[in-house]
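anyone else get weird line breaks when pasting these?? whatever heres mine. first is seq + tokens for prot A
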Amino acid sequence: MGSKRRADRGQLEQRLLILVTLGLVAFGLVMVFSATSASATLGEGDPMKFLVKQGLYAVVGLVLLAVLSRVDYHALRPLAPLLLVGSFVACAAVLVIAPAINGAHRWFVFGPVSIQPAEAAKLAVCVWASAVLARRPTPKTMAELMKPVGLVVVAFGALIVIEPDLGTTITLFLMVAGILLVSGIPLRLFALAGTFALGAGLLAIWMEPYRRERVFSFLDPWKDAEGAGFQNVQAIIGMGSGGLTGEGIGQGIQKINFLPEAHTDMIFAVVGEELGLLGSVVVITGFALFAWAGFRVALSCRDPFGKRLAAGVTTLVCGQAAVNLAAVLGMAPLTGIPLPFVSYGGSSLVMLLCAVGVLLNIAVNERVVEARVRDRGRGNRGSRATGARGGRSAPRARRDRDVRRDQRPRRVAAGA
């Protein structure tokens, strides 16, 4: 009965993840069109330009989600080193051969398509770190944590910061932190590693003048409302002008030459203006439900690799959402990362949908394991009942006991 209840909960979590993901993607398409139609019409005469591109990215991502949800996630484990090396080479190459866009070397551009290697790197590091921590004892000291997980994460973080892209680096560290917590790392070591990461982040902020300006404008955006604090102030105005129910879809004015990056980093401000407090709460609730379902999948998974991978994917999605929402709401400095599934951006959308596909497969795999355990339990009870009715000799009893021991449920171990 207990196994059946756990299987039912697993099915609920799987359905909830699907519904929330599809709902946020569909909502994102609507908001991207609302945030870009006016500016696209004024600039190029095509109000559908951004919607069409985002729609194509969504189709590609959803196809990959469907495929990965049906491919056993254990297949990713032997591919982890290859994925890691490939993404590292891509992150290094983008610094050398990619064109500068808005002062940053982040994208490979192939005609109308742009690819951001850092988005793929987050998923690659998630798979690799989960595989390494699943087969090794839990790190107990800083030296054990640094070799090799810490060194690899620091190397990726350094490459991404140089692009420059501090927001993606923060998301990467948050994701690894989620994996470490599920792995059972001592809290003292976790706090020490977090302190070092925070110090490195403060150093990266201090070394770049524009990052320092972001921090100072966060502390007092109205001090320079026409300069460094302009984006913060416009986001606050947009969120505040929406009231309870908002101005209505497409009726906001902040997105038209007032709010910078309205369709990417600051799209939640458009949501607040056009859908008000109610619409904003719905979006936040969606990510909260995703976090609940995702971490439930992670905590109930018996496979060490699957447990860590599910926690990493969930932290990746919800940690990135938390950082973006905090920045738009004025609770944290601007970091320049998009809102998952909602903001415009092909690489981010496709890779996050791939990650959700992996998470769904972990949920499905755990339900299959529960079903097998339940079936074996029924078979064992039948054997015991037959033996009790007919009586057994000592050798036969020992043989039956050995059979039952072989039939005991085993924890599914990835690659084991």
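and prot B, same format (seq, then tokens)
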Amino acid sequence: MVHQVERNKLSQLNKRLDHAAKSLERMCTFHKSGVMIDCSLSDLYDDIFEIGTSLKEIQNNDHFDLKEIEVLAARQRDLLAKFESLSEDFNRQPKGTILVSRKTIPDFFYKITGRHRKMWRLFEYISAASGLAIILFALISITYYTAYGGLPFIQMASAASPLVQGFGFIFGLIIGLIVHEFAHAIVLANNGIKIKEVGAMAGSMVGGFIEADEDTFFQSDQAVHLRFNASSIGTNALLALVLIIVAAVIKSDLIMYLALGNLFFGIINSLPVRPLDGGWVYEDIAKIYLKNNILKQTFLSLRYIVVILWLILFSYSAITFH
């Protein structure tokens, strides 16, 4: 009977360590992708610390297997070290001024998706498809730029005054950020994933963020992850297309540069490397469609070959120019 009680306690501690390890891995993933995790850090620390306390309490009990306890204690110390590294990295990041909504804005997204769920689901699929398209567009555009030193659609819009160019491009970046985070939140709300925070920061870094509940997010289907990551850059692509058409029709340089600013924001986030959205999309595609590990690793390695190609083309164009 005593032996069974020992086994149960050690089994429970082992499960708690497994859960803490998964939570820590999820937080690292969120942190690398640029979303805020400060709300969850204290909870995870409490879990890891309590496990350590429980292990210390039973270490002096002769009824327990000391070797097994030491194995669990080593795991707990390793998790604590990783947590402290993540926490230090998070605290080193400049925060500046942060505006956060934990209820009003998240509730707004649940409200609008609850009324027209089919419409927003259609939005998910269209924007996700556009996200795949802008990743391809980004790869082609950057390859062209490194080879020839310019892009035709930027050269055609270069006749505008510097004031129009600067104001339009910067305001376009801001619009791009807003619609980008809007798309992230729509996918979360439309798939029943809890939104912890929606916010913006201003300081040495300027940007917006969406913090999703880790448990509900990672329990969702991989296809939802793909739509979550692709819809944001896809929305940037769709908005850019609309603005470019409007600018061409009414011949407005300002709107054209709004489109370019928004498009630039989307292209930068489309690069197939983490923590950018394009990197997560690239890996989501591999997880969903490639079951063979060799094919999957080959596919994941192709993006680095593209980067090497860019360096070669850039070096060649620089040498040729001189």
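btw re prot B: The mean pLDDT is 79. The chain is about 80% helix and 5% strand.
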